[in-house]
Specification:
The chain has 125 residues and is mainly alpha-helical. It has three helices and no strands. The protein has one domain (2-23, 32-124). It starts with a helix and ends with a helix.
Length: 125
Amino acid sequence: MKSLYFLAVAVALSSGPVYAACTYPKAPDSTPDGNTATLEEMVAAQKAVKAFDQEIVAYTNCIKLEHDGTIAKAGEKMTPEQKEEMSRVQVQKHNAAVEESEAVATRFNEQVKVYKAKAADKKKK
């Protein structure tokens, strides 16, 4: 019976955010190929990667506010175990978002290196 109560509380708390609906940002569709990309394409991709990173920061801040607000609103209605579970889920969401942002940046930076190497080769010729 306790697990059923926990499940009901968890669903109720997760379905109705206190501050705002935290929308997970969409990563840039693609990263230009450094071998064939133009400078304009690389600059546009850089702007998209930076914007995505800023959106990830806003998202992680939002889920933190949502988490803290939910726990504050619930007060004594939540057990320490329920609070711990909510915190675990919030940390998982945060870490997954940061990892995706880092992966997008890494892919872009790899293509920047390729682009710069190609440009250096052109100057040598």
